[in-house]
Write a structure and sequence with these properties.
With 449 residues, this protein is an alpha/beta fold. The chain is built from 18 helices and 13 strands.
């Protein structure tokens, strides 16, 4: 069976279409965002049971490139890609679905899981989308497209993923970063991978405006999430979670929200599963925002009747410090389809809950802290039932944010840091060590959370 995919305008009154090898990010007729559409009739000639069998056979196998969590679903992603010549894969996906049993008991939910999307090559879920985009760019170049480089604006994770995959493909990359607003680990990733790094005196929204201007030159290809190729890879998160649950759908999925491309991606994968007969119900999707960068939450309070961009304030959750998210309309559409909720977390809430989670075996980035804090708030408000199966999407690895963790445990924040744990400095003497051990082991609650 021959499967096809194409770009299509999300505006239902327009519906303009473009080939996937077009250099196009918004509809040329009405300026709306695009999305990748698949020939669902062709995909439906295979039963849901057959698709499950195909995906199970490929999952984490050594058959190139199908062992990738993304390319194992290749027919649902880029069905017309030249697999042998143009797929750029670093075995992304297949990440751990962590059973957060101890943390769940503490906060009052019976079955809590954390999808560790940061356990991937560049340390974030952005790898899932970038393998698709860079593979398509490689295909376009092989077909004669005059693309000289791929460019993005970033709060750190997109740039790391773009730099990694472009380095693997031998394609130049350009990243625009807001100076002083990302972690040192996130800065050094594209530097190490050979990108042209433009470190700018602005915020992410300013970087985004500038990258849209420079990519009007069609020799520079835009890699931000307004390019819907990214969504095709990121949508496999939802598919993979259901697959890891033996094709059973959890009740709630909670995802940190910044530029909001990942929200529509999560929904898209789940809707494809339903429409092709792999599942028969949908979860509720919750978007978690930092209080200092919460434009979607503000719109949610008005039942999405209006949306107003804001000037995002500095937040520990720097990757979602975005006041004018590109994918806002897609995100709102997804939330309406999934009976969605939007909630926010303060700086103290996200930092404390991230640290509490760390004490139960995780190593949380601050954005996962936002999602976990929102979980706690919704449980207390009765909007999530303790008997529901909940999955929190952890978008990046905690090692990217060690500066934040150091400041927290050294109590250098603007709040008490309830779970701070400082090293005990001692002379290298047995008696001094024994004295501290005896005190710590006798101290009630010292190792409790």
């Amino acid at each position: 069976m021959s499967y096809r995919a194409w770009f299509q305008c999300i505006n239902p009154e327009c519906g303009e279409t473009y080939p996937l090898n077009s250099v196009v990010y918004q509809c040329k007729r009405c300026n709306s965002l695009l999305e990748v559409q698949h020939d669902m009739k062709a995909l439906a000639t295979r039963s849901g049971a057959d698709w499950k069998a195909v995906f199970e056979k490929r999952y984490k196998s050594n058959e190139w490139p199908f062992g990738s969590g993304v390319w194992g679903k290749q027919e649902w992603i880029l069905p017309q890609i030249d697999i042998e010549k143009n797929v750029v894969s670093l075995y992304e996906g297949g990440t751990n679905l962590f059973w957060a049993e101890r943390f769940g008991k503490i906060v009052g939910v019976d079955e809590l899981w954390v999808k560790l999307c940061g356990n991937t090559h560049s340390g974030s879920f952005k790898d899932l989308g970038m393998t698709v985009l860079v593979s398509q760019v490689k295909q376009m170049i092989s077909e004669g497209a005059p693309i000289k480089a791929v460019a993005c604006a970033s709060t750190g994770d997109t740039s790391a993923a773009l730099a990694t995959y472009c380095a693997a493909a031998g394609i130049p990359s350009i990243v625009l970063l807001p100076r002083g607003k990302i972690s040192l680990a996130q800065l050094i990733q594209p530097v190490s991978n050979g990108s042209l790094v433009l470190y700018l005196d602005t915020d992410f929204d300013g970087c985004m405006r500038l990258v849209q201007e420079i990519t009007k030159d069609e020799t520079l290809y835009l890699a931000n999430s307004m390019n819907s190729l990214r969504v095709e890879g990121q949508k496999t998160v939802g598919v993979e979670i259901v697959q890891q649950f033996d094709w059973n759908v959890p009740d709630v999925m909670i995802i940190p929200g910044g530029n909001l491309g990942n929200v529509s991606a999560l929904g898209k994968g789940l809707l494809m599963m339903r429409d092709l007969g792999l599942i028969n119900k949908l979860p509720r999707i919750v978007v978690a925002q930092a209080e200092r960068a919460n434009p979607l939450y503000r719109s949610y309070l008005k039942n999405f009747e209006t949306f107003e961009p804001i000037q995002a304030q500095k937040t520990l959750a720097s990757a979602i410090q975005i006041g004018n998210p590109v994918s806002i309309q897609k995100a709102i559409r997804t939330l309406k389809q999934f009976n969605g909720i939007v909630e926010q977390a303060t700086e103290e809430e996200l930092a404390d809950v991230a640290a509490l989670g760390d004490r139960t075996g995780m190593f949380n980035d601050p954005h996962t802290g936002v999602a976990l804090a929102v979980l706690v708030k919704l449980l207390k408000a009765g909007k999530i039932d303790k008997k529901e199966k909940v999955v929190v999407i952890s978008t990046a690895h905690g090692l990217k944010f060690v500066e934040m963790k150091v400041k927290y445990h050294q109590r250098e924040m603007d709040f008490p840091c309830r779970y701070a744990n400082q090293p005990v400095e001692l002379p290298a003497r047995l008696d001094a060590i024994k004295e501290v051990l005896n005190k710590a082991l006798a101290e009630k609650g010292r190792f409790d959370v």
